[in-house]
Amino acid sequence: MSAIADNIANVHEYMAGVGRKARSAGRAMARAETAEKNLALAAMADAIDAQSARIAEENGRDMAAGRESGLDAALLDRLELTPERIAAMAEGLRQIATLPDPVGAVDDLRMRPSGIQVGRMRVPLGVVGIIYESRPNVTADAAGLCLKSGNAAILRGGSEALHSNRAIAECIRAGLDSAGLPMDAVQVVDTTDRAAVGDLITMTDNVDVIVPRGGKGLIERISRDATVPVIKHLDGVCHVYIDDAADPEKALAVAFNAKTQRYGTCNTMETLLVAESVAAQLLPPLAERFRDAGVELRGCEQSRRWVPEMIAATDEDWAAEYLAPVLAVRVVAGLDEAIEHIAHWSSGHTESIVSQDWSRAQRFLREVDSSSVMVNASTRFADGFEYGLGAEIGISTDKLHARGPVGLEGLTSQKWIVLGDGHVRG
Predict the structure, then answer these.
(1) Do 225 and 363 form a contact (C-beta atoms < 8 A)?
(2) CA-based, 20 to 30 A from 262: which of 13, 64, 105, 135?
(3) DSSP characters for 186-216?
């Protein structure tokens, strides 16, 4: 793939061409057979396995440049492609191939008194534009999900991952070609000029939906400026609430994993809420585990009674998505106050309760208004792969069309179909 000249006029012309090719490829993908799509997915995965050393080498170039330019630890973590993450990209594509093809599925077909049959058929969205920072694994995940759901994809990764994305894109194109599908079905934008993003989010003739993945600033800009519909979440201020009726060992394990399994992800716990009646029992051993892991704790006044070395928390801490080894801790009176805190401070991404009282757990599930709500499980499970979606194109905290991890079904829509036999309306 050749680099595009950093001339804005050329970028506009280039992006217009990308959009036209995507629209044409999208029509071909909408009629592609399941076997063809699965063959392409398998070939993409094989190509990633075969090219893993080269992908790692190109990622090394991006990592070196990122360190030199001062990328923070969270962004470097998202950027890095370890051998395990490269293998996971290939495995994600293979898992997508095993999932049922949603395209063409007919739901709720029923006979009406007039004699016609009415139902709804699942169809691709068309052309999906994905704009993302760091995480080059998104290139493979998004390509695979868009392909299986019958869409064309325009992928615009961040400049910090350019070499990684180019290497992965070659594997994707090779897979499409080997299955006889149009290689323009997945296009990776080959310019770092920011004008390309402005074009992509306003190409209403050739793009049907935009999915931004990245920092809050990027997503706010896309949401503000896009004329194409957007599926998004702004940030991940996720909570774990340890209830009065929690099993202590489960509480320690869930809270520790939710924060420390990975720091730089949107489903990492950022605030821990602990019921007052168990705070004296659970906060000191939790604080010790977090301290040993290098996590800085910022607590409310009651939290600091039991763990005096905590830094005093402010309102800014309750709203913070740290993406770092920092955790806000608050002692609450009980379930009602925990739900109230979450309602006020949460970003609507993922919340979890640790409790052996099923009636309280049911209240938490019903009343907490987030895209994923969990009982006795780490927030780190809020992930398309863990949900059995094969992968995810992103997380949506919107309430229309798609909510939570967006997999195959979230990349399709439904249209009404009517089956008749010469029926006319009287």
Answers:
(1) no
(2) 64
(3) EEE-----THHHHHHTT-TTT--EEEEES-H
